[in-house]
Amino acid sequence: GCLQTPAHERRPGANPYLVSPASFFYVVKYPPDVAFWALTMAGNLFLLALFGAVPVRVARRLTLLLDFGTTALFFYIAHMLLVFLLAGVLVALFGHDTGVTDPMNPDDSQGIDNLFGYFGTWALALLALWPVCRLYSRFKSGKPADSLWWFF
After folding, report:
1. Angle, to 10 degrees, between the axis of helix 115-141 and the axis of helix 72-94?
2. What CA–CA distance (Å, rounded) separates 59 from 51?
3. Residues 73-107: pLDDT tens digits?
4. Beta partners for 111?
5. How many helices (H) and strands (E) does the chain have?
6. What pTM was computed for the model?
7. Which stretches of the chain drop beneath a pLDDT of 50?
8. Which of 115, 111, 59 is nearest to 87 (CA)?
9. Domain boundaries in the chain?
10. Closest CA relative to residue 128, chosen from 50, 75, 90
11. Which of 71, 93, 129, 134 is deepest in the core (most CB within 10 A)?
């Protein structure tokens, strides 16, 4: 089968999805997989219930979440632009040959596989976009309820 982990090599005759906890939670995003949809939907509903249980007086102090939450589509588009614009620079500065070819450019195997570099880039992107999202949220709140700006 396509599910191959070290746990499967140790127990080849066992059910491939029950060999280890990692194999139980193995989901595939592409091609679309029902398990991926169900796992991500369960996670989203859990977070929705968790944030819904937060009292209003506490929620008002979570300005970071409110700023990104009120500008979700804007943040998504802005972070994609920021990451794509900085990707070449970051790979040039911190990248090395990972041995994994890029599907879009098979001749290139440069990348960043450092976990601290990944999450550091993620945190810097969040910090860079927070004031922009905050300004956009204030701009959007000044528009009438039927304005197209509320979609973004």
Report:
1. 150
2. 8
3. 999 999 999 998 888 888 888 888 888 777 777 78
4. 96
5. 7, 2
6. 0.67
7. none
8. 111
9. 1-53, 56-152
10. 75
11. 71
